[in-house]
Amino acid sequence: QEVWITIGSMLVKMEREKALELLKKDQQQIEQQINLIYSDQKVLVNKHRDLEFKSPFSGTHLKPLEKKEFDTLKAHLPLL
């Protein structure tokens, strides 16, 4: 089965499996870039606060739970 996918400003017709693979790769790359921006932002905020002689924000070194960790936690906690 072929599907239409937008690449830039073009519409391209390709096989569904290949389109899904392409979208998954794009999603992974975007998530990596977002995580890099978040980590850089945390460093810059703490550097700025250091220049203002303030203590760093608490909790800026926390990382979000991955889906697998969240699912495990959700499975073992009672629902409220």
Automatic annotation (TrEMBL):
InterPro entries: PDRG1
One term under GO cellular component: cytoplasm
Alphabetic keyword roster: Chaperone, Cytoplasm
Compartments, record wording: Cytoplasm
Major location (coarse): cytoplasm
Name used for this protein in its record: GM26744
Phylogenetic placement of the source organism: Eukaryota, Metazoa, Ecdysozoa, Arthropoda, Hexapoda
Protein's gene: Dsec\GM26744
